[in-house]
Write a structure and sequence with these properties.
277 residues, alpha/beta, six-stranded mixed beta sheet, 35% helix
Length: 277
């Protein structure tokens, strides 16, 4: 009898998971199947690719010149600013530096705010933890928001574009611009199925020291998540309510209704566990 070492190796065949049809409803890693006691090779490689994309999103640098050009095309003045984190490595290691402006940026805003000009809203765009998300979605998201705002009702500050910024940097910028509300569009921490997810945070009465409990968040803005029109509709509702009530955060509830009953909104709202087939 031939020794077992001399026998040709037989590749283990992948066994499909009976719940695989649920993958039609979600990008979550479910019903992956198995090959022996491990994942099938293609599923394992998919995971490694997603992990690499998430790492790239965190490490990538924002093309500020391109972003500035795209935002300026919307017809609003832009301000190019930088956080106290000098580079990406510092930004990742010192989150507190990403929450404050560097001295040149602070002086630039202080000079603009020396007059009596006040604004109803200040929009800020920051790279956050995914420059990819900002590069890909921020200009179009801003366009969707600005198209819904009546300039006679809302005095809009110059749009601030921030490198190496975190959410709380909107507090300092909003305060220096004398803005009643601050809205920051920022790249969210990448997930293994969403390296390009954009988030929006609204703060009424921006000032240094505000907590996350004083903000409202709209997240997962991307092609496979919340659409630009739906996010803009929700944000304008929150901005209007915040101005009326004089607050934001946990005390401001998002009771906005869908902008329509389109197939897209219906698809996003549907429970994938309920099979309508």
């Amino acid at each position: 009898m031939a020794d077992w070492k001399d026998r040709p190796e037989q590749a283990a065949s992948a066994v499909a998971n009976p719940w695989e049809f649920l993958r039609d409803y979600t990008t979550a890693r479910i019903a992956l199947g198995r090959a022996g006691s491990s994942l099938p090779t293609n599923r394992h490689l998919d995971f490694q690719l997603a992990h690499a994309r998430a790492r790239d999103a965190v490490q990538s640098e924002l093309d500020m010149a391109a972003l500035e050009c795209d935002v300026a095309a919307l017809g609003h003045e832009t301000l190019r600013l930088h956080s106290a984190a000098a580079d990406r490595a510092t930004y990742l290691q010192r989150p507190d530096f990403g929450r404050r402006l560097d001295e040149p940026s602070r002086q630039r805003l202080s000079g603009r705010a020396s007059g009596a000009t006040t604004y109803d809203i200040a929009f800020i765009v920051a790279d956050g933890l995914s420059a990819l998300a900002v590069q890909r979605h921020a200009p179009a998201m801003l366009a969707a928001i600005l198209s819904r705002i009546d300039p006679e009702e809302w005095q809009i500050a110059p749009i601030a574009l921030v490198e190496q910024g975190r959410v709380a940097i909107s507090d300092e910028i909003g305060a220096l611009l004398n803005a009643q509300q601050a809205v920051i569009l920022i790249g969210e921490r990448p997930g293994l199925s969403s390296p390009d997810s954009l988030g929006i945070y609204l703060t009424y009465g921006p000032r240094i020291g505000n907590t996350d409990a004083e903000r409202n968040c709209i997240s997962n803005i991307r092609a496979a998540g919340l659409s630009y029109p739906a996010a803009a509709h929700r944000l304008l509702h929150l901005m209007t309510a915040a101005r009326r009530l004089g607050l934001s955060g946990v005390d401001l509830k998002d009771d906005s209704t869908s902008i329509d009953q389109s197939a897209e909104v219906t698809r996003l709202a549907r429970n994938f566990l309920v099979d309508e087939r």
